[in-house]
Amino acid sequence: MAMLDAQEQTLVKINVARKALAEAKSIPDVKKVRDQASTIEHYMRRQQYSLEAISDASELKLRAERRLGELLAATEPRTVQGSEKGRLAGRKKSLPEGITWDQSHRWQTVAAVPAADFEAHVANVREEQISLTTAGVMRVAKRAERVEHIQQIVTHAAPLTDLTPVPILYADPPWQYEHVKTENRAIENQYPTMSLEAICALPVTTAATDDAVLFLWATSPKLAEAMQVVTAWGFVYRTCMVWVKDKIGMGYYARQQHELLLIATRGELPVPEPANRPASVVTADRGDHSRKPAVFYDLIERMYPEFQKRELFLRGEARPGWIGWGNQAA
Fold first, then answer.
1. pLDDT > 50? residue 116
2. What is the pTM of this model?
3. Is the pLDDT higher at 139 or at 76?
4. HEC letters along 71-134
């Protein structure tokens, strides 16, 4: 019974603090509520309260930090990033007592999250019964920044129908994954994705000569879909190569450490000379997200030195001697 009374008293404190937050107008007053909520949260964790109860304190703390971020943004704009170690030198203003520059940056980041996104995050986290944290909200902010960046770099690429056909196509489609469990690991954080239907519908047949070879990247979960793309683009699957990575990744059944480069043809383009045929397994380091090792450009160039080559879904600058196409082409 005593433990029940303690829980009831703690819940009363949360309700009192929640009311105080609604009435608080100044940074010190809001900071006081934030600190009270943090203390209550730590106490509840030590006493092994239910996650639902702890989440009440966590949510109150987050809402106080969001309000602090709004107030701080009005007096001290978020112009610095990182920790307080060295990179915050040169600041011209001082912060209210008891608030560090790192806290100011974090709370202003939380405040910058659109209200709808913030509320959706809180609701989703509580529904999934995981901890509500400042870091989690900051990941939402990071995702929003990435989405904005992606929207800025997505320009209107030249229609494939306007491209001169070439005999060698190299493609790394922006596959859309349906079962992304965490926002911070979502593929859309890195680049715009396309549905299978949209990828298949691209008029790639007009971008290739009647006699052509297609090199198509596919991850293990997307192998079946990649085969559909091969057919939709008018090619016939022949064989594949395997890229073995230096680092292991994620996976629901097996943690992935490889990707497949499918090789498909149409017409009768000559096969590579025997001396120019590479091994089917290539070991190479993994670079930035989705970037494929340069060694595969080398292999394709050695396989087909005579023919013009085009890279579809190019991200960045085209390789010298290649033609690029894509909404992120530099």
1. yes
2. 0.54
3. 139
4. HHHHHCCCCCCCCCCCCCCCCCCCCCCCCCHHHHHHHHHHHHCCHHHHHHHHHHHHHHCCCCCH
Query: 118: which 2 tokens?
Result: 């913030």
**Quick check: 77 pLDDT over 70?**
no
Angle between helices 2-23 and 51-75 (to 10 degrees): 20
Q: What is the mean pLDDT of residues 98-103?
A: 90
193 in helix, strand or coil? coil
Cα of first residue to Cα of last residue in the chain, in angstroms, is 68
pLDDT at residue number 94 = 75
Q: Give the integer Cα–Cα distance in Å for 133 and 55.
A: 9
Tokens of 17: 């603090």
Residue type, 64: A
* 307 vs 216: CA distance, rounded Å: 17
- Write the single-letter amino acid at 249: G
Instruction: For the chain, give every domain's residue range.
Output: 2-79+99-150, 160-329
How many residues make up the chain in this entry? 330
Is the model's pLDDT at 197 over the cut of 50? yes
**Could you tell me which residues are beta bridge partners of residue 325?**
312
The pair of structure tokens assigned to 49 is 């309260």
243 or 89: whose pLDDT is higher?
Answer: 243
Q: How far is CA 109 from CA 32, 38, 77, 78, 149, in A?
A: 20, 19, 11, 8, 16
CB 250 within 8 A of CB 256: yes
Residue range 160-329, CATH number: 3.40.50.150
Per DSSP, 186 falls in state -
**Which residues are within 8 A (CB) of 165 and not within 5 positions of it... i.e. 6 or more apart?**
206, 207, 208, 209, 212
Helix, strand or coil, per DSSP, at residue 268: coil
The reported pLDDT for the residue numbered 264 is 98
